[in-house]
Design goal:
48% of the residues lie in helices and 7% in strands. With 206 residues, the protein is an alpha/beta fold. The chain has 2 domains: 1-118, no CATH class; 120-206, no CATH class. A 4-stranded mixed beta sheet has the order 1-2-4-3, covered by helices on one side. Bound molecules: zinc ion (ZN). This is Mitochondrial inner membrane protease ATP23. InterPro entries: Peptidase_M76_ATP23 (IPR019165).
Length: 206
């Protein structure tokens, strides 16, 4: 369980214990093209000192949201990362390649953690609730910043940011078994204006 834990690092100073997820699927981490386990855990520790991550953590604490001991873990998983209510955030070490990606994943997932905490009736099985949080996470994390979009090969400039947020929100909703593709599309459209313009806890999209 303690494997990969960062003891006295900056993460510990910030009150978050970073640890590698201990599960039987650790094998294969080095051949699947991501970062080494060590680099990944170190990357997560550095990300905790990223100004946006610090800000979100502070805002969560102010809002009375529990920042539990092992909020962020390095793991072997199939996406770039995820957040599960009560379980916390996983960074998929086998998918991430750069520090910037780790920062992005953590900021994105922290928005979900924030939403989970401040919206008392949050129901992840409800397509509209989940869609709203995905719109916010993709918008506010900078996932759709034009430089990242150029790297992905999406070159359209006008309106690219909103297209990108929609595209990525729909992609994430595919993982929700209670959201069919049609329901996901409808949900994104239905909550778009409210959720795209809801930039809490930021004054405006960073
Ligand atoms: Zn998400």
């Amino acid at each position: 369980m303690a494997e990969g834990r960062v003891g006295g690092g900056p993460g510990a100073a910030a009150g978050i214990r970073v640890e590698a997820e201990s599960s039987s699927d650790q094998r294969g981490s080095s051949k699947s093209g991501g970062m080494s386990r060590k680099d990944c855990i170190e990357g997560i520790s550095s990300a905790i000192n990223h100004p946006t991550v610090r800000f979100l953590r502070e805002e969560m604490e102010k809002a009375g949201c529990p920042v539990w001991p092992a909020l962020i873990k390095g793991a072997i998983c199939s996406t770039a990362g995820d957040y599960r209510s009560g379980d916390g955030i996983r960074v998929c070490c086998n998918s991430v390649r750069y520090q910037d990606e780790i920062n992005q994943v953590i900021i994105h997932e922290l928005i979900h953690a924030y939403d989970d905490c401040v919206n008392k009736n949050m129901n992840w099985k409800n397509c509209a609730h989940h869609a709203c949080s995905e719109i916010r996470a993709n918008h506010l994390s900078g996932d759709c910043h034009y430089k990242r979009e150029l790297l992905r090969g999406f070159m359209k400039i006008r309106g690219h940011e909103q297209d990108c947020v929609k595209r990525r929100a729909l992609m994430s909703l595919k993982s929700n078994p209670s959201c069919s593709e049609a329901a996901a599309k409808d949900a994104v459209e239905a909550v778009w204006n409210i959720c795209y313009n809801d930039t809490r806890p930021f004054d405006r999209a960073p």
